[in-house]
Amino acid sequence: MISRWKDNSNCFRMKTIIALLFCVTFVAAQSGDISFVQKALLSGLRTVCRFKVGASLAEEDQIRAQDFANFNEKQKCLIKCMSDMFHFTNEKGEGNSEALHRLLDPVIGKERATEVDNTCKNLGADLSPCDRVAKVYECHAGMNAVFLFENLF
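== Odorant binding protein 6 ==
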């Protein structure tokens, strides 16, 4: 009984952390800047995802450097984990245009956000979820539209 409560408690804590991080990131996107505290919270979420997929700090640094040609499966799944946490993608790796626009529109404008979304959202439809999200992330980076991920990684 206690073990089950502990599992539910951990799940609740994780969902609470994710909700808080989403709110912090949304506010940051509205202001166009992310504060030190917000970066620390995002770093915590990155750590959760890194442990979840088994990625190393060096692999995370490679994502930050946008070394796409050499990404391994753990790195791709780390990007997917972060995207999932912010509801940019679902478990299949499909994009959520509404969530993307909610965060991109205030920063790069609705027209530019629509261009980014339309250009990138259908890439990698035949790939695994992690590969697909990594391909979309690469597209966003190529269009200079990874403002949020620059702070996430």
